[in-house]
Write a structure and sequence with these properties.
alpha/beta; D-Maltodextrin-Binding Protein, domain 2; about 290 residues; two-stranded antiparallel sheet; Arc Repressor Mutant, subunit A; 9 helices; 9-stranded mixed β-sheet
Length: about 290
């Protein structure tokens, strides 16, 4: 038996003067109120209400319990109000998982302004290139690039980012600028270590073309790959968000600008809750806005 429900039924029945009136005020039925009161009387071992065809009134035992029931309901309402206040005010710890490169190159710089805006929020950022287990690792939000989306979680699309061929001006000055995708075979191509083979698929308005590339250097860090291409080690394919600042400053140049690699598709993922805690909701909104700028 729910003590809150049974004590609410007792208080309302006495205040309203009848079980039917109490039921109407609570949006339920008279038999439901009667069952709650009967169960409460059974629990305390005493009759709590005198019932007549016109109205109900408390017995001596009912009056004593009525005082306690009213205090309990008042305390309960105060606790609910306090919890609602906490839930509506961004407060507490949020755990965010994100890919390493995106975290180091973009997210990290965004977190200080976020924390300044929400001083009661604590933030743990976990940078992992693997797809984390949100439930098992107690992750509130995960930024995921590519891969199969989990069917049991909510996935919010946040961006589709093209991948561009880039090189440093110094490299192109020394080795020449490719004029066609097939020319890439004669160049040093820098590849992320997890890439499966030595071919590259590129797309333009002409269609999709797969060309061979020569990758003498592979590395499992996208940030290190960015540094290598900036230092003139070769040509590589990078998402636009990764190199936009270097392109703007002239430290990198786009190669074969009519061609691009498969786009990155990113999602923010969270548990399927009817209503997210305020601390998670504000971070979600903040990241949606920031990621859209990429």
């Amino acid at each position: 038996m729910c003590r809150i429900a049974s004590n609410t039924a007792l208080v309302r029945a006495v205040e309203q003067g009848s079980l039917s009136a109490a039921a109407r005020s609570l949006g339920t039925t008279q038999p439901t109120i009667s069952k709650l009161l009967t169960a409460l009387e059974h629990q305390v071992g005493a009759r709590l209400l005198e019932r007549s065809s016109l109205r109900v009134s408390p017995t001596d035992e009912g009056r004593r319990l009525l005082k306690t029931a009213r205090r309990m309901l008042e305390d309960y309402d105060e606790v609910l109000a306090d919890v609602r206040s906490v839930a509506s005010t961004p407060r507490g710890r949020v755990r965010l998982a994100a890919p390493v490169a995106l975290g180091e190159c973009r997210l990290n710089a965004w977190m200080s302004p976020f924390l300044a805006q929400y001083p009661d929020v604590l933030l743990d950022v976990i940078l992992e290139d693997r797809f984390v287990d949100l439930v098992g690792e107690r992750i509130d939000l995960a930024l995921r690039i590519g891969g199969t989306l989990p069917h049991d979680l909510v996935a919010r699309p946040v961006g589709t980012w093209p991948r561009l061929l880039v090189a440093s001006p110094g490299y192109l000055q020394r080795h020449g600028t490719p004029q066609h995708p097939a020319d890439l075979a004669a160049h040093a191509y820098l590849r992320y270590a997890a890439a499966p083979d030595d071919t590259l698929a590129l797309t333009s308005t002409e269609g999709t073309l797969t060309v061979p590339v020569r990758s003498r250097y592979r590395i499992n860090s996208a940030v290190a790959l960015r540094h290598s291409v900036e230092q003139g080690a070769g040509i590589t394919l990078q998402p636009r968000w990764m190199v936009s600042d270097l392109l703007h400053d002239g430290r990198l140049v786009r190669v074969l600008p009519a061609w691009s690699g498969a786009a990155q598709v990113a999602h923010l993922i969270h548990a399927p809750r009817r209503r997210l805690p305020a601390r998670v909701a504000v971070l979600l909104d903040y990241l949606l806005l920031r990621l859209a700028s990429l």
